[in-house]
Amino acid sequence: MKRLVIVANRVPDPKERGATAGGLAVALQDAVNRRDAMWFGWSGKTAEATAAEPSLLRQGRLTYATLDLGDSDYRRYYQGFSNGSLWPTLHYRLGLAQFSRDDYAGYREVNAAFAGALAPLLRPDDMVWAHDFHLFPMGAELRRRGSRQRLGFFLHVPFPPPAVFAGLPRSAELLADLAAYDVIGLQTEDDAAHLRAALAAEGHAEAAERVSAFPIGIDADAFAKLAERAVEKQEMARFRRSIAGRALVIGVDRLDYSKGLPQRFSGYGQLLARYPEQRSRVTYLQVAPVSRGDVAQYQALRRELDELVGRINGDYAEPDWVPLRYMTRPVPRPTLAGFMRHARVGLVTPLRDGMNLVAKEYVAAQDPADPGTLVLSRFAGAAPYLKGALLVNPLDPDEIAEALDQAMAMPLKERQERWEPMAAEVREGSARNWCQKFLAALEG
């Protein structure tokens, strides 16, 4: 097999495997296990200046190649343009986008530095697979350095309608950069159609033909086993005792404004206000590890959520019942799997999401004899694939409350009928199948 070179903003820690690994590392695990492979990208560390040459670490057939970023480059490339401009634009939130020419220059400089460090490491027959919005220009920068390898790109987040993307300054340059890739993948057909239209409008009709949807998945069987084992652990027994037989609603998200957490909390508050019979019968646990905590918008979001949690608990708590439990520190993956298996409702309501693997993980974690119900935003990329979910508009707190009440009252037979086709879909649309389909297209 040809060597696979994976280029990502952040290279996973070689020490993290299996249950502790990040989402992209888990999704690509099968691909890197089957062939010689290299992970290339940022080390996660900053220095006075961006390194010119990567640090190399080889473990078996896998090589880790990482660059430290200079403090200024990190601020402009990562905090500035990637997260301050691109992220909100791609999530349809132009009003939150903050554009700076200096940040944009830093974004392009880091992509050029990545390409300059990677190009000498490439073999003639390598396949290069770049991931996500941090690396739009990476393929074009490699081509400028004479790289003739097959280049693939996958966007894990949504791509908005062309008129929205055109609102971002220099968007035409970014589309021209994407045209350097041989295969361009997105999560859904809607996202792929938006990007095709944007490329065609800028005169890149041939590149538009190389855009396809490759919906990402999970290893459903492995996650199901993780959940089964977690239920037997002592920490889960302690957790079950703490909720005292009440039904559990579970939410698991990064602390990010795209996840719709304020609206979700308001929806849960509406459940308690409109359906008083649910009070003291349900406990909602929201796990939301802090993300980009040094960005002002995220700091404001955290303050808003803290206030909402305090208000809901202040209005409805009893001496022996806390309605909303809220955690902003990471929880180990096996523990999350156990929480999901125990939860009567999985609450996944992003305002916009590329796919949302938490929804698929919740489905995979369920006990087939007594599955829970998934309440899912119609704007998540997973929505077209998980037809047994209760779909909601995340901007309507009353709709969330109504779906939660319906889920809590749903009889076992209906829960099973909804869950079974979703479980089959999650098993079939696995991470392995996603990798195989994309790499087959990349091999040409």
Automatic annotation (TrEMBL):
It comes from the Bacteria. Signal peptide: none annotated. InterPro entries: Glyco_trans_20. SUPFAM superfamilies: UDP-Glycosyltransferase/glycogen phosphorylase. CDD domains: GT20_TPS. Belongs to the glycosyltransferase 20 family. This is Trehalose-6-phosphate synthase. It comes from Craurococcus roseus.
